[in-house]
User: What shape does this take?
Amino acid sequence: MSEIFTGSFTQQEPIPDEAIDAAVEVMRHGRLHRYNVAEGEVGETALLEREFADQVGAKYCLAVASGGYALATALRAVGVTHGDRVLTNAFTLAPVPGSIAAVGATPIYVDVTEDLTIDLEDLAAKTGEAKVLMLSHMRGHLCDMDRLMEICNAAGIAVIEDCAHTMGAAWNGVPSGRHGAVGCYSCQTYKHVNSGEGGFLVTDDAEIAARAIMLSGSYMLFGRHLAAPDPEVFEQIKYETPNISGRMDNLRAAILRPQLRDLEAQVARWNERYRTLEDGVRGTPGLRVVERPAVETYVGSSFQFLLLDWAAERVQEVLRRCAARGVELKWFGGAEPVAFTSRYDSWRYAETPSLPNSDRILAGIVDMRVPLTFSLEDCAQIARIIRAEVGAVFQGKAAT
Ligand SMILES: *Cc1c(COP(=O)(O)O)cnc(C)c1O
Assistant: This one.
């Protein structure tokens, strides 16, 4: 009888006790709205923003209602408006092109490479098409950020980083989200810290920060922030910027502060699991592991491998066989969007160009979540199952 994995791919760890206590405290006093503070009190949200700004070395930070809201707010704050075009990754998740559509702009997709990062040659070829790049560090894979910034700086392109999968990651020692003009993060349940919903936006640009704060629904209470620019910066901006409510609240902020203090330790735990998976499947015939560059500090909260140039039915056969043994894999090659997984050609509110290079890669990407509730033994077992089933289907292919 072959072994079967019985764990859950969607089970998070509990919220830490310290965070639960902090949340209960906020509920006891009742001042959940971020600007509802007692005389002399500094709210949890303002503290959270200061702490996250310091953690990533940013001047300014705004906490908001979701990662997707942070992306749309960043676009508005850098000046993207209706009818503009915005470069973005062909390999990403729906909230990324969704944020571009939210501001009435159009996504222009850039190819993905076999390393699952944005194709810098394709990017360089498309710099004439837009003034802004919404760069998604999809599934935590960082491209050569030094080269990317060279290309974008030379072309006068403002970079917004979608760090939904790279909170805690770095390129060449620079935290993810700190290369471009704005870095955006998500605190949604499936990301690296968990407040159910939530997000951050960080920047060193005072005007972008002031606009983002006004946009988020600060009314004229921006003076209650601890990671905001000086009041003078708001002088004009406060009249010119619409209020598009999307604030963080003190309850979620209270839950997040202790989790952010633990982030580094959690990253180390994710990476042990990631490496166990990687070691376990490496060398499987027909399977390609995504090698991580030495200068990339990554967070292995999800794991991908490629079944490159396999026939679609063969990949589906692997998925079926793994699922039958309790291993839930996602595939980016499916013709129809499924659950959280969709592709550029499913987002039909915008033009869907033909991207044969990306199609080839997407058709080979197999993806899985790595929740911290998995033990290292769980990861070793999952890898054995993947190795066996990919091997079986691959050999079957060789035999036919
Ligand atoms: C989750 C996610 C987002 C958006 O975050 P939400 O907090 O769910 O709005 C953006 N980009 C990527 C790649 C994501 O996975």
User: Anything to note?
Assistant: DSSP finds 13 helices and 14 strands in the chain. The longest strand covers residues 60-64.
